[in-house]
Amino acid sequence: MNHSELHPASITLRKGGIHRLPKARGRRVESLSGSLWITMDHDLRDILVKPGEGFSIDGHGDALISALDDARFVVLEPANASRY
To answer: Which of 6, 25, 27, 40 is deepest in the core (most CB within 10 A)?
Structure first.
């Protein structure tokens, strides 16, 4: 994947910042820079996403994305998304 094409759609978080992702199932979080910590409602796992890595949300409900350092990331919708 060419990340330079995704920069305009990226989300920036300062270290310690949190981004809520409602109804997150099926979305993919890709870190462009910085490390991210992802937690999901009713899920005991803690997911660490390092720069250049990604994670597809597989839990139900909302997800929280926390920046472990200054970070920039994108949230990709699944190809068959119907959120309307």
So the answer is: 40
**What are the distances in angstroms from CA 42 to CA 14, 45, 49, 61, 67?**
26, 9, 19, 8, 21
State how far the Cα of 6 lies from the Cα of 20, in Å rounded to an integer.
20
pLDDT digits (tens, 9 = 90+) for 33-72: 999 999 998 899 989 999 999 999 998 899 999 999 999 9
**E-strand stretches of the chain:** 11-13, 18-21, 28-33, 36-40, 46-49, 54-56, 63-67, 71-76
- Residue 73: which pLDDT band, with cuts at 50, 70 and 90? very high
Asked whether the beta carbons of 33 and 57 are under 8 A apart, the reply is: no
CATH of the domain at 57: 2.60.120.10
Enclosing domain of residue 65: 3-76
